[in-house]
Structures are given as C-alpha cells and as structure tokens.
Amino acid sequence: MNDQTPQSIDAALAEIRAALGPKGWLEDANDTLKYRTDWRGAPEGEALGVARPASTEETAAVVRAAAKAGICIVPQGGNTGLAIGSVPTEPRPTIVLSTDRLTAVRTLDPDNYAMVAEAGCIIQNMQAVAAEAGRLFPLSLASEGSSTVGGTLSTNAGGNNTIKYGNTREQILGIEAVLADGSVFDGLETLRKNNTGYDMKQLFIGAEGTLGIVTAAAFRLMPLPRVRETAMLAVPSPHEAQHLLTSAREMSGDTVLAFEIMPRASFDMALKFIDGIVDPLAEPSPWYVLLEMGTSSPLDDLRAKLEAIFAEAMEKGWVTDGVIAESEAQRRELWRIREEQAEAGKREGTPRIAGDVSVPVSRVADYLEQSQATMNAYLPGLFFNCFGHMGDGNIHYTARKPASVSEAEWEEKKPGLTKRMYETALALGGSISAEHGIGSEKLPYLEKYGSPSKIALMKSVKQALDPKNIMNPGKVIP
Amino acid sequence: MNDQTPQSIDAALAEIRAALGPKGWLEDANDTLKYRTDWRGAPEGEALGVARPASTEETAAVVRAAAKAGICIVPQGGNTGLAIGSVPTEPRPTIVLSTDRLTAVRTLDPDNYAMVAEAGCIIQNMQAVAAEAGRLFPLSLASEGSSTVGGTLSTNAGGNNTIKYGNTREQILGIEAVLADGSVFDGLETLRKNNTGYDMKQLFIGAEGTLGIVTAAAFRLMPLPRVRETAMLAVPSPHEAQHLLTSAREMSGDTVLAFEIMPRASFDMALKFIDGIVDPLAEPSPWYVLLEMGTSSPLDDLRAKLEAIFAEAMEKGWVTDGVIAESEAQRRELWRIREEQAEAGKREGTPRIAGDVSVPVSRVADYLEQSQATMNAYLPGLFFNCFGHMGDGNIHYTARKPASVSEAEWEEKKPGLTKRMYETALALGGSISAEHGIGSEKLPYLEKYGSPSKIALMKSVKQALDPKNIMNPGKVIP
C-alpha cells in the first residue's frame, strides 16, 4: 500500500483486464452501478471496475494483481445481503469481484449425499439440481431466487429450516477459496470425517469475504422429503408456542422442518397490503404458529403425527384453533402470509426500527414480552410486528412509529428503542445479528456489544490472513 | 523464551503452586506418571508437574505464569486419544494441564436443547444427565466412559452416530477457552443462529489444545430416541451394503443412527477372543452390516420401517440373511461384536498396521476393494480386518502379518503397506485421519500428504494465536 501510485494501479488494472478478457471486466459507471449499489438503495459506492472471473484461476489472477497494487476487493454474490456487506464503502481504490460467472455445478454424488458447486450458483438452482437427483439441498431462504452459494456461505445464512438442518455452516463439507495474496486454498473435500489439522474452511464461513474469496464449496445433501404436512395454528401467546414446539419436536420424531411464529399484526399487514391473502382461520388470534413437517419415508404417517400433536396441544390449551393444508396450493397460501411480511412492511411505509435478533429457543417468549414492555415504556403506542424462526430462536423484529409521535421525536427516540431491542436480547444470552451478519451496517453494534476477547481474536486472524486489509475492508471487523 | 532461566521457571512454578493450592499441583514422578504416559503405553514424557485447576480463573492463572516463563503446556482430558496428542513429547520445560477437576455441569436447558459443561466432564455422564432431562447428548464413542468434553472437542471426535448427528463440531454451540497469553475467550453462547463476526470457537474444535485450553463448552442436545431398532444383516460385499445404506436412509425417514460394516474376519476375531460372543446368524457371510435406527416419536413404527428395508434388500439381493434384536439384551449382544474389535485385536497379538481412514460414503466399497488388492499384491497373504462407520465413510483399518512372513520382512514392508492404505484413500478423495486426529503420531503423514495451502494457513493461525508455541508443541502443526 505504501508504494501505491496511479501508475501501479493502472498497471494492476491492465493486468486484470488481460487476465479476464472483455466479458470479465466492466468499468463504465452505468454497467457497474448495480454492483456498486446495495439492493435496498444505499448510497452508491465507488469502484475502479467490476471483475467477473469465470474460473478459480482467473479469480486468483485478479487478486494477485490487486494485492500487488494494494487495491481493495469487495466480493459479491447475489448482492441480496441485509447488512451492506457486498458493496464498496471505503474511500480506498477498490474493485468489486462478482461471482456471477462462476456458475458450474462441478460434481453431484447422490450416494455420498454431496454436491460441489461454484460460488455464483443460485441457491434455487442448487435445490432444483439436487432434487432432480432425489436429494435435498437443505438451505431455504427468502432470497433463494437470487442469493448465491458464495454469499450464503460468506454470511452463514440461516433461513426457514435451521431447526432441522442447521445453518449454512452445517451444510459445508469443503471450500475452495482465493486468499488475500492470490494463492488458492484447496479444501474441496466431500468427507463426513476428516480430522487432519485445523478445519481451516470454517474461517471463511461467515467471514463476509474479509478473509478471502470463496470460489467453490462442497455441500452435504439430505434425503429429500417426499411428504410434507403444514399447519397454521392459533396460539394464545409465545409461551404456549414454546410448549407446542417442545412437544412437536419429540412427537414428530424430529421431522419438524419449520416452526415460524407470527403475531396478529403479521396477519393484518398481509391482509391489508398483499393481494390474495385470506385469513385461514375463522377468529383472530393474538399469535400464530406455522408448523411444517417433512419426511423422506413413504412409511411415515406424518398426518397422524401432526393430528396427534394438534390434539394434545388443543387439550392442553396451547393451541385454540388451526388448519392443516390439504393441498400444495393451500400450503403455499399458508406460507405466503409469512413470506410476504417483508413486502407488506415495505408497502406499509411507516418509519420503523428493525432488527434480526436471536435468543435461546426457550427464551423467545420472554424476549418478546420483555422487549416490547421496555420499548413501550420508553415510547408508548408502538406498532410491533415481531415474527420469525421461533424454532431456532431467531426473531425478525420491527417496531413502527405511533401516529401520534412526530418525525422529530421518532428520530430522537430511535437509538433508545434499538438499544432496548438489542440489550434485552443480550441480557437473555442472545445475539444482535442472528442470520444477517455484520457487513458495514451493524459494525457499530458489534463494536458496542461484541465480546472484547472475540473481537481481539478476530483481529489477529484478519491480520494473519489479510495483513494489507484489502479483502472487503470496512466490513465485519470493528 | 529467550530469557528463560532456571530462576524464571522456578518463579513460575511457585506462582502456579500458589494459584492452585495443594490439590491442584502434582510433581512427584509417581503421581504424575499416568499424566505423562499415553494409555497405549508410549514412552513416558517429561514434565515439571501436573496442574489440575478447579476453575477457569485457575486455568488462566496457570497459563499466565507459564507463558511468562516460556513453559509449555500440554492440555489433557481423559488421555484416551489415539494419536499421542495429550502427553508431553518435546524436550522443552513442560507442564501437563489436566482438566480432571473441571467437572461442573453449569447449565442444562431442555427447552433450548442445550447444556453447558466444563472440560473435564466425562462423556458418559453427559449422556446420563441429558437423558434424565429427556434429551439426547448426541455423541457416542467407544471411549465414552473416560473421554471428556475437552478432549472430545479438541479432537472433534466422531463415533457411532455421526451419520445422524454429525461429529463433535456439529454439537458445539459455544466455547470458553484460555488462550496462550492467559486471557479468556468467553464464547459460551447457546444460540442456534449468531452471525456477529467470525465464529472463533471453530478454531478450538479439533485443534488438539494447540491454540488454547477449552475450559467449558455449550452442547446442543437432541430429542431423546425412545425406541431403537437394531439389526445384524448379512451382505455379500460392501457394494451391496452401499445400496442398503442409501435405501435405509430414505425409507427410514432419516432415522438411521448407526450403519457399521464388518467383514467375516471381525466375527471370527470376536468369536475366538471374546467371551460370550455368539454368531447371531446360521451361516457365515463375507460381510455384515449393523444397522440401528431410533426415534423420539411414540407414533413412529420403526419396526415396520426396518422390516420394509429388510424385505426390499432381500428381494434385491443386497442382504442374504439377518436378525432383528428382540430385546435390549439382544441389541447389546449384536453391538458387542462391533465394540469388542479393539479388544479382540489386542488379544490376537499378531503384528499389524492400522489406520483410521475416511473416503466419501459412496466410495467405501471401492476403497476396501482397491486397498486390499494393492496391499495383497505388495505382500500376499495379509489378514484384513477393516470395519467401521460405513454410514459416514470412516473405516478402521487393520492388516496383519501373514504367518509365513518373517518379522524382519514385515518391518521392511510396513511402510509400503501404510503408504498403500493411505494413498488409495487419498486417490478416492479421502483422509488419512478420520476421527483420531493428528497428535504427534500422525504428524509425518500430515507433512507428507497434507495440502500445502492448508498447512500454510494452519501455521499462520498458530503463529497468530500462540506466537511462543507453548500450547501443546509438537502436535498437529507440521
């Protein structure tokens, strides 16, 4: 970096252009705009250009040239992140490295339940390719139509089925990555057991591109669920939902794929702002659980299991009403209420604070109660819509400005509300970012709330692997 | 290290003695012998003494004092490892740090399916404590009666149920560790989703104590299987076992807990050397599969599933005969054939080479065939007993000296046999150490066969976290 000059930068860019060919390099501001801009419309970042390597070798060539000249690299997958982690944010000479030409599925071995694919593969395509071979690609995300292998891995994305399959980390058997010096880490195994030294691939999972660029990954696959049963159940409060969850996991033989909680507010939002949404139950309920089970076995009577869980829960008063999907169309209708929350929230438009918090699964009910109480005491009349993956303790939190409160007062109170949202979670052993990562957006919160011992370790690993700080600077590391 | 003197070492030991009290420090050679000696009887190592801290604070005090004086620390759990990883092997001033007084179960939250326990807790006790709360502690190891939380975590132990639950790594939600400078990493969360920066705890899993001393860990629990079904099935060859495995995973609804393969040699060994072993089948078979399924659901008809799997496999010729355990006693009898292999092998006594290799699950049959062919071509007449966790691709390999071969020729041929055992696995995308780790024993093989890019990364992480190389030196890092 010390010897960075306009000449050395030009030389590096020339080298990169030569390595990538005309399809692999964009520098016109219009062409690069979408790569420099967060999809939620954050201010555009500056970049010397966008590299679109078509192979691991080309990726390595880009990094080698950039490293020599001290040019920063922002790796980018589907650019669907929620923490401004995949666009340039720093005032240093920077290129975006998009994985959108790294799209090969390299191998698929159904008997080994494993699949190796390049970083730019779209998650939805991964699901389809695996399903064709009779296997489940276990990640299921709201953004799966555009999010990629590399982005999902780099943020350790979670999603709807974490209760059953875990997060992205649990799916990863191997990684190939280009390091900050342009060398290649060749860790693409597809083994279930391999204890030959430190498991270095773990470092790249959830590192948001700050330690290297993942170019390919080996994923474990699972038996494909051939039967699903889905129900929308009315519950009096999250406390009863907690009992239902514990019972459902046991009684179902651990076939619960998803356990989503929603308040009535979620239903009201969806009914008001989304076309074609119908309330599946006759009477409104304060809270709802969307429960889905799945099995690969033709010998599993999931409907009987679901009905037994339902019957016990009715008897115990955990559930007051419910509907079981009788068709795939009805199943989709139930899921739409949950999946359209982001869209409904956008259309509603009232100023809000939002968070992606987690707590131990057993503390979700306490967390919702305590956080709303303390926030309402600070600013009465808030409109809460806190829903999410109760089965893994992850709540997508929103609190909206009351109509009676002025914009000015709202702006003044927002930090205090956010503080209460986060600190209530932390007091229960929770986290300020469950599945969205840190990016640049949540850096101040990590700085404020992160464990100093963990941050010190992060810094020493970053220093060891990327001493020039050229890999996605300004992200993740306080 | 440069200013290490007899005086500085004495001062450090005095500080350690003072921090630990009389119960916490052993230095008489007889008292320390068992801590300095590998359980398989490797030559005893040298140690200034054995520290037995009773808390994280005491552990940190020991490390601070040792670090100041450049004294090396060998962390030790149950000392049941299989790679000489937990005893002193280097000619530098060294203490053993035993976790045998760190035995508290700190918390157990059944509704969060999580349990926090200190490093010295015995795995069998963890299973019992979890079961009392109606939960499964998912690790099951041959050495579970003496292996510990810390040792299991530091070697990322696998065991019998990896096909269903994964290795130790997949069970770990949080870690508390004392680092090489005596500071404490406080990462004891019990969350399912937490993406706030690098997941630093991953570094300590499988690091065999070379990056710090794990003092406590948070484990995920699972629904407790209340019904198990176990069968011993005769299969013509590992190729048919492969078909059976794929079918069983799907047809059972992913309730396969264990899928162990054994050749007839395993049966012969057990029948000859172990009391009370009975061949459960009328006719001998070249190969066997021990299949176990389990479910937490009272609504799951596992017997019907097992019978359907069995019937299909008989029809297709994958299985030629079999027996289903009709009682817990019978189940234990079937398992004993598998579990007594280590003991039978010890009693048999013939010189042998042994390995703990893994390959992709789909390549186990090929691996057994190819490795035995190439080894037999190199030295005809070998007696093979290669059994293990086929469900996760992990084979415990032994090849014994033919009676016709002299001791001298055997010694000469051993390296060539080991080379063939490992290189055949590597050619199939396998590993030279599936679940036993590297320790000091397998270091030459990691050096020879390890990926240079991975070893380089390992070294930079080791350098960053333990620059003085005082944490278990001579282990894991080539």
UniProtKB/TrEMBL annotation, chains A, B:
The FAD-binding PCMH-type domain, residue ranges: 43-224
Coiled coil: none
Name assigned to this protein: FAD-binding oxidoreductase
Cofactor entry: FAD
GO molecular function: catalytic activity; FAD binding
Native source species: Nisaea acidiphila
Domain of life: Bacteria
InterPro entries from the UniProt entry: FAD-bd_oxidored_4_C, FAD-bd_PCMH, FAD-bd_PCMH-like_sf, FAD-bd_PCMH_sub1, FAD-bd_PCMH_sub2, FAD-linked_Oxase-like_C, FAD-oxidored/transferase_4, Oxid_FAD_bind_N
GO BP terms: respiratory electron transport chain
Alphabetical list of Gene3D superfamilies matching this protein: 3.30.465.10, 3.30.70.2190, 3.30.70.2740, Uridine Diphospho-n-acetylenolpyruvylglucosamine Reductase, domain 2, Vanillyl-alcohol Oxidase, Chain A, domain 4
UniProtKB keywords: FAD, Flavoprotein
Keyword field contains NAD: no
Family statement: Belongs to the FAD-binding oxidoreductase/transferase type 4 family.
SUPFAM superfamilies for this protein: FAD-binding/transporter-associated domain-like, FAD-linked oxidases, C-terminal domain
